[in-house]
Amino acid sequence: MRTLSTIMPVAITGVDLIPGLYPEWYAVLQGLSALPLIGVAFITRGSALSAAFPKKN
């Protein structure tokens, strides 16, 4: 979850910036769908979640 929520907004934005690949309205909707993923990335990389699930050595 941590990895995908970090990589997917970058990938979505990169694909949306290719001219002529999608209609503008579709690119805007994809960009809007990336916003919740950015929120998930911040939540999953936060200190509260890291404290709840410590890494085992």
From TrEMBL:
Q: Which residues cross the membrane?
A: 25-43
* Keywords annotated in UniProt: Membrane, Transmembrane, Transmembrane helix
Record protein name field: Uncharacterized protein
This chain's source organism reads Microtetraspora glauca
